[in-house]
Amino acid sequence: MRKLLGYQIADADGTNIQGDDGDPSGLPSFHIMTAQEAAPILEASPSRLLLMPIFEGDIENPSFG
Predict the structure, then answer these.
(1) What is the pLDDT of residues 31-61, one digit of tens each?
(2) Of 19, 23, 46, 56, which is most buried, counting CB atoms within 10 Å of its CB?
(3) C-alpha neighbours within 13 Å on the C-beta side of residue 28
(4) Residues 4, 52: contact at Cβ < 8 Å?
């Protein structure tokens, strides 16, 4: 069983956008957030965003909030 580490921002289509130009968080692509850290970003965004679960091994050398 894989260990859930946290979440990243995805667009309404489920495509991970964290670290891209359209990402309202301003966080780098290797940063992993808790749901509580991501909630204000999702609430403030004018477009629909989703949380993408990130599991151990999905991101090389991740950083955490």
Answers:
(1) 999 999 999 999 999 999 999 999 999 999 9
(2) 23
(3) 9
(4) no
Burial class (CB in 10 A: 0-12, 13-18, 19+), 31: buried
**pTM, 2 dp:** 0.89
Neighbours of 22 (CB within 10 A): 12
Report the DSSP pairing between strands 31-32 and 63-64: parallel
Q: Are 17 and 23 in contact (CB under 8 A)?
A: yes
The DSSP code sequence of 32-45 is EB-HHHHHHHHHH-
Report the largest interatomic distance among the alpha carbons of the chain, rounded to a whole angstrom: 36
Please give the Cα distance from 47 to 3 (Å, whole number): 29
